[in-house]
Amino acid sequence: MGDRTVITTQVAIMGAGPAGLMLSHLLAQAGIDSTVVEIRSREAISNTIRAGILEAGSVNLLVDSGVDNVLRNGHEHEGTEFRVNGVSHRIDFKGLVGQSVWLYPQNDVFDDLAARREADGGDVRYSCSNVDTADLTGQPKVFFTDEDGKDFELRAQILVGADGSRSHCRSAIPESERRWYFNEYPFAWFGILTEAPRSSPELIYANSEHGFALISQRTDTVQRMYFQCDPGTNPDEWTDEQIWEQLRLRVNGNGFELKEGPVTSKVVLPFRSFVAEPMRYGNLFLAGDAAHTVPPTGAKGLNLALHDVRLLFEGLDSFFKSGSSAILDAYSERALDRVWKAQNFSYWMTTLLHTVPQEENHAFFRARQLGELRSLLDSEHGRAYIAECYTGWQTK
Ligand code: DHB
Predict the structure, then answer these.
(1) Phi, psi of 15 (to 5 degrees)
(2) CB distance 91 to 386 below 8 Å
(3) pLDDT recorded at residue 359
(4) Considering its fold, how many domains does the chain have in total?
(5) Is 390 within the bounds of a domain?
(6) What is the distance between the terminal CA atoms of the chain, rounded to a whole angstrom?
(7) SS3 207
């Protein structure tokens, strides 16, 4: 290594995804200094297609901090549709629990936060390499090489690992100090973008004997759709016609037809549940995907990350302003309370709506699943339970 430039800050943040940038933005507004280190380029993050649903609490966090494009460019959804064997059931979020969600893609959340950090003169370093950490139980340090090839040593009082599902920070915690929980699933999602008008005003979560499908949206002319597939599927081998055939089988019926168009993007998304406990080691705090992954069915990933950030910010703000670490010390336990609610909801929505083709007792599983769907959808309490979880639990 050549000469290393030493920089000091109050909070070092690994990862400039929505979690890392949101935290850096909140800290800046409270007068707390941070430096964000990210290995990807700003363009690569901005161009990665991610999920699209924000809970009302996530929207409030953005808007209350002055990042409010979501109000102009997002779409409020007061409910969603469950379609079971082609029969539609509406979950009226607003009527059942007084909440709604917003369709606003994660790329746009990232672009808004990145632009705001840039406008405010925030220290966000994209395209870094040779990233490593040290002294997590003392004064944490981050070593990195920036995009111009210069070597740095970043010293901070607190290190936040918001570095995503392949987190480096998480792996820096000694094995004896942490516990990892995993679950794998026998299917994946085939995700597409298509140039077509909206098929319906709200999202459609479809269950059928042919498998699950989700009809989501992006703009007036671009739509996002997913269908359950085998995890080994190679998306490049699928023609547009084969894709539409699967979507039609799972969603169309009783006079409803999807609006079709050319498929402009194809990707297979694996499913996984993962939690790293505790979300703290010494002066390292984990937030977002670095600490937990959920299967995508409940639209919880980004929302959980933003909720972590909200709690972590409360702890850090109190720590730097009053010197008291009480709220910060409670961070992991407070965050994990919602993490496990979301783990349950994501797992449960997944088993509720997907079919398990190779199951030995397939006929029983399918009939039982339809019984579960009827017992939920025919009951106001059942629909309210779905609405409460989907729109996001009210913070205690
Ligand atoms: C989208 C993704 C999800 O996982 C979900 O549950 C709802 C919407 C989306 O990409 O739009």
Answers:
(1) 105, 125
(2) yes
(3) 65
(4) 1
(5) no
(6) 49
(7) strand
Is 319 a member of any domain? yes
Closest residue (by CA) to atom 8 of ligand 1? Answer: 52
Amino acid at residue number 336:
L
Please give the distance, rounded to the nearest whole angstrom, from the Cα atom of residue 129 to the centre of ligand 1: 31
Query: Is 236 part of a structural domain of the chain?
Result: no
3-state secondary structure 160-201: EECCCCCCHHHHCCCHHHCEEEEEEEEEEEEEEEEECCCCCC
Whether the predicted pLDDT of 313 surpasses 80: yes
| Average pLDDT rounded to a whole number, residues 113-127 | 98
C-alpha of residue 41 to centroid of ligand 1, in Å: 24
Pocket test for ligand 1, best of 50, 93, 226 (most atoms within 8 A of CB): 226
Percent of the chain with pLDDT over 70: 98
Q: Residue 29: is its pLDDT beyond 90?
A: yes
- Residue 210 has which token pair? 């042919």
Q: Tokens 């993962």 map to which residue?
A: 274
Domain hosting 34: range is 5-55+104-181+273-348
Asked if residue 357 has a cis previous peptide bond (ω within 30° of 0), the answer is: no
Which CATH number fits the domain that encloses residue 157?
A: 3.50.50.60
List, as one string, the DSSP characters of 124-142. Answer: EE-S-EEEEEE-TTSS-EE
Other CB atoms within 10 A of residue 354 CB: 20
343 found inside a domain: yes
